[in-house]
Amino acid sequence: MTEKMQLASLFPEVSSEAWRSQVDELLKGRDFDTLVKETSDGLRLQPLYDANKNEQSAPGEGDLRRGVSNSGGPWQILERALHPNPLIANQHLLEGLSKGATALQLILDPDVNEQSPGVRAVNRDDLATLTKGVTLDALPILLDAGPHAASYGDALLKLAKGQNCDFGELQLLIACDPAAALASDGTLPGGREEIYTKAATQAKYLMAETPLSRALAADGRVYHAAGASDAQELAAIIAAALQHLRALESIGVTPSDGAKQLLFRVAVDADIFSGATKLRALRVLWRKVCSDCRCADSADSLLIHAETATRMLHCFDPWVNQLRTTAATLAAALGGAQFVSMHGYDETGVFPSALARRCARNSQLVLQQESHLHAVVDPLGGSGFVEDYTEQLVDAAWSELQELEREGGLITALKKGKLQARIAAVKEARLAKTANRQLPLTGLSEFPNLEDIPPLGEAIDWPEALRLAASRVDTQLIDLPDGAPELADILPASTLGEQYETLRKNALAAANQPAVALVTLGSKAQYAARAAFVSNLLAAGGVHSTIGGELEKTENIVSAWQQTGSAVAILCGSDSGYEKMGLASVEALKKAGCLKIYLAGKVHSLEDQLNTAGIDGYVFMGMNAITFLQQIHTDLGVRS
């Protein structure tokens, strides 16, 4: 019989008090709470935790935080169909399947007037072209068609019948979530009841004919993309699921059966613990809902599709995006997602390049086949940090869910603008943190590469793609809903670094390369730290900087500034250097005609004198970088 190793017994037990005393000693008088991190939901993440003392259920048991199964297994790697031309999209799908993808994600859009991602599948022939060479009952197929998902689902089911597919093996995931479509587009092409009833009827059909398939989705991606907190996203997901359960119940489907028709869709970003914890919390929440609906066992059928978040992707320094999406996929794996989609590193408003699509696929293959992430179920289980984080997140999401229910449910809350307002408040608070660089964005707000330009992705002749789609509209039409629309305020997608991206693009579009003169006082040892800080900050706004060298005399300072040709100067030096040369430097530069003068850091003893001499501002850690950079753009004549 194999004996279990008790590794912890090999080390002496250390009390919490002993750990805390060590921390307090290192803090040297600072408050312990300065080490506490607070999330967008107001959850407090401690720097120090005990081992989790609570008795945790094994994977597949209890509240399912540890997963719906007690055995590990690889997640499905989704190859995404995005190209507007069905023929080209088909080629991409087949290539992906031949090189490691294990499932398909068909992103469909019937609109022939808009340049947006998605296959322009305007009729049944387009679906046949898109899936040519694919054995429909041989692998999972996720159908992503927004408010038209049920209609495209019907068309794909007919196509499967025409191929004589085994409906017992067919795994078609028709991701119909009217609430997400309303939040994303601001409208539904048909009445709420019509769309929900059609989806529920389709679900009832799938239960009888193809039991591995699902007709409904609870999609949190649109809320996350708009800036929602984790708790807000989770609450919206559960609220969307409840809308479906009610629609199913209205046509005679029990919650027990209806729960098995849902696919849960979550966005995961580069914060690995946040993403993994969100998936754990989702299972706890769904188990609680199923228990309240007296169908607790149905929670075991929960399927999660995790997709790398769009709001963390930035158009500058795209290689950093590849690191972010890899971290997000790690979070999805640790959190127990069964399906994963990874965005291309250059997929920021453009179609991803062939290399980006390949990297998205191969990154997952490395994480599976070389890192063996799927071989361990819930490796985070039992961690004091993760378990406490999970509990806090569940409580916060449940409170938000109750608020949505008090407002009349998710659709009604969206139509009233209630949820949008709460998400906007969270987004603004987060943007404030990115503005003062409390929330750093590598390659954008921190350590930007000024030689970088936005990626071009793969070129698409959009006018031709839309013309071809329009020419096919009248053949074998797919029956789309067309009733009186539901309307709501749109939840616009944004990125964490959108303010910096705007500044960088404006700088790139300027007639002349924007540049600022760094007037470096004293020796390199005295000015280097502040000069590096200012140079990095300016680069975040697309502004170049020139360093004057070791400037010891006033006449050298003026000469060094004049040689740069810049209208703006920033003094960089040590506090003692400012005491010695700061005031004289400002006066000399003003007299020489320098338009704007700033000083890196703050010297309180000189502040009044510098202000009187005409200093225009100070550059310091924790300042609003966006406001400062906007001012610099104005000083340099860069158009917004």
Can you characterise this structure?
With 640 residues, this protein is an alpha/beta fold. The protein has 2 domains: 76-371 and 378-445, TIM Barrel; 498-636, Cobalamin-binding domain (Rossmann fold), CATH 3.40.50.280. Helices cover 46% and strands 11% of the residues. It is built from 22 helices and 17 strands. It has helices at residues 16-27, 86-98, 124-130, 149-162, 178-185, 192-209, 221-225, 230-250, 255-258, 272-292, 318-335, 354-370, 384-406, 410-416, 418-435, 462-471, 498-509, 524-539, 554-564, 575-592, 607-613, 625-636; strands at 37-38, 44-45, 76-81, 103-107, 141-144, 172-176, 187-188, 214-219, 262-268, 303-308, 339-341, 486-487, 515-520, 544-547, 568-572, 596-600, 617-619. The strands form 4 sheets. It has an 8-stranded parallel β-barrel, surrounded by 8 helices. β3 (76-81), α2 (86-98) and β4 (103-107) form a beta-alpha-beta unit. α2 packs parallel to α3 (124-130), α10 (272-292) packs parallel to α11 and α17 (498-509) runs parallel beside α22 (625-636). It is globular. The mean pLDDT is 93.
Brief synopsis:
By secondary structure, this protein is α/β, with parallel strands linked by helices. It has helices at 16-27, 86-98, 124-130, 149-162, 178-185, 192-209, 221-225, 230-250, 255-258, 272-292, 318-335, 354-370, 384-406, 410-416, 418-435, 462-471, 498-509, 524-539, 554-564, 575-592, 607-613, 625-636, and strands at 37-38, 44-45, 76-81, 103-107, 141-144, 172-176, 187-188, 214-219, 262-268, 303-308, 339-341, 486-487, 515-520, 544-547, 568-572, 596-600, 617-619.
Indicate the mean pLDDT: 93
Question: Any idea of the CATH class of the largest domain?
Answer: Alpha Beta
Radius of gyration: 28 Å
**Helix/strand/pairing class, anyone?**
alpha/beta
Considering DSSP H and I runs of 4 or more, what fraction of the residues is helical? 40-55%
Named CATH architecture of the largest domain = Alpha-Beta Barrel
CATH superfamily of the largest domain: Methylmalonyl-CoA mutase
- Put simply, the count of helices is 22
Would you give the CATH topology of the largest domain?
TIM Barrel
Q: What kind of sheet is the major sheet? A: 8 strands, parallel, barrel
What spatial form do the alpha-carbon principal axes imply?
globular
Distance between the termini: 73 Å
Using DSSP, what is the number of strands? 17
- Spans of at least 5 consecutive residues whose pLDDT stays below 50 are none
Domains counted in the coordinates: how many?
2
Tell me the β content.
Answer: 5-15%
Oligomer: single chain
Instruction: State the strand order across the main sheet.
Output: 3-4-5-6-8-9-10-11
